[in-house]
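#struct-help
A.M.: can someone run this one for me? Single chain, 93 residues.
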Amino acid sequence: MNTKEKIAVMQAYIDGKSIEYWSHIYGNWRRLDGDSEPTWGWSNTEYRVKPEPRIIYVVNHVHNFESVYRTEKEALAACLHVGEVVKFMEILE
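D.P.: on it. Structure tokens below:
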């Protein structure tokens, strides 16, 4: 990770965004405790801004086919009142 990327993570922390670090013990990303100032051990710890979940909209058409859209507005326009719009949100752990 270069200096600009490190600064971006630290700025995101200051801005109140959720920061995660890679836990070698648990083998997954863990939330950085926001109760105290982080020590930022860049030489032995990897940090990132917690990613936002992706959202897609699926139109279930009456003729048994589906279409996928990135925005609800696009899905509603494609639906034309002859189908159903279903929102799917990615689960990040």
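A.M.: thanks! Residues 3-49 form one domain.
D.P.: also worth noting: The mean pLDDT is 89.
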